[in-house]
Amino acid sequence: MDKSWMHITNRFRSTEYREGLHQFMSLAQAHAITNNIRCPCLNCRNNFFHTIDLVQRHLFTIGIDENYTEWIFHGEEETWDGNDLDDDVNELQNHEYVDNMDEMLDDIRLGSFTNVELVEQSTGEGPTYVDPRAKNFDQLLEDAKRPLYPGCAKFSKLSFIVKLLHIRTIGGWSVKSFDMLLKLLKVSFPDALLPDSYRESRQMERALSFNYIKIDVCRNDYILYWKENADKHDCPKCSLSRWVTCTTKEKKVPHKVLQYFPLKPRLKRLFMSKDTIVAMRWHKEHRFDDENVMRHPRDSVGWKEFDQEHISFSVDARNVHLGLAIESPFQ
Questions:
Q1: Which of 95, 120, 155, 202 has its Cβ near the most Cβ atoms within 10 Å?
Q2: In angstroms, what CA-CA distances link 26 with 19, 70, 154, 164, 168?
Q3: Does the pTM of the predicted model rise above 0.85?
Q4: Going by C-beta distance under 8 Å and a sequence separation of 6 or more, which residues neighbour residue 244?
Q5: Rounded CA gap, 223 and 219, in Å?
């Protein structure tokens, strides 16, 4: 189906946009089970269900999300890249994916539990001081070495759950569907060491400290409800409410939420593993100079000019060069 109409900015006067919108709504209505469907407009982005008429008004007045190129929520089948599927199969069959899990945790533990504030714990032999995160991490180490079921050589309990959570993210599963799958697996394979719910699975993952911070966002993207704006209920720029519903009896739901992944903990993780630390220092210790070939960003003019200007920074291989990429609104 031709989707060039999605990129037309002059929506209100374009016959092409109206015809494309009509084709989309016909497809969505033909596959709708009820009168409520997901709304792919720029504000809702398939996160909210509305009536078919309201969805059509949103798409006409607000515009469709141009990143929604495969209409998988409205009747269109999702396309699969055969190469990507082969890579996933190879990864599942790769024994190193499992075998290295406990080694990775050992590397992370060595880097995580140093110079942290210890908590006093009373015992019969007097007070002792422990890291509050150590107990959860010990459980992770145990799960990384425990086979998924007796005799399983491909997956440990931890590696299987990590892979399952990864597939959920890529596939866009809901929490309810993930819980349903876990129940089915537990009934079908009673000897498998599986968690009872998505929440329990996420608790295992949180012990790795790969968490994110939720920050509410203005519906029109003017501000973040963060720091000095954290307690505000209306945007000071456009005066729109922060919440989908303003009633006090119901749980307040923000219009938009930003998932912020702190950068520093993730950079530290790259230096904790003996496998990834080699790649992090490659630009300084294992580079191959050839003016005719660009093998790495360090071969670029910008990198070299930066190193010449900041010599004290460039001499230490552990220092990280970060690049900022943005999407221009004028493209």
A1: 155
A2: 11, 16, 46, 35, 29
A3: no
A4: 252, 253, 254, 255
A5: 9
Distance of CA 149 to the CA centre of its chain: 29
Sequential DSSP letters for 146-190: SBSSTT-SS-BHHHHHHHHHHHHHHHT--HHHHHHHHHHHHHH-T
Mean pLDDT across the stretch 84-92? 48
Q: Following DSSP, what letter does each residue of 228-287 receive, concatenated?
A: GGTT-SB-TTT--BSBS---SSSPP-BSEEEEE--HHHHHHHHHHSTTHHHHHTHHHHS-
| Residue 205: closest CA among 263, 154, 143, 249 | 143
The two structure tokens encoding residue 278? 């080699």
Going from N- to C-terminal start, the domains of the chain cover 4-61, 82-206, 285-331
Strand partners of residue 254: 243
Q: What is the pLDDT of residue 182?
A: 94
Q: How far apart are CA 234 and CA 223, in angstroms?
A: 10
Sign of CA dihedral 133, 135, 136, 140: positive
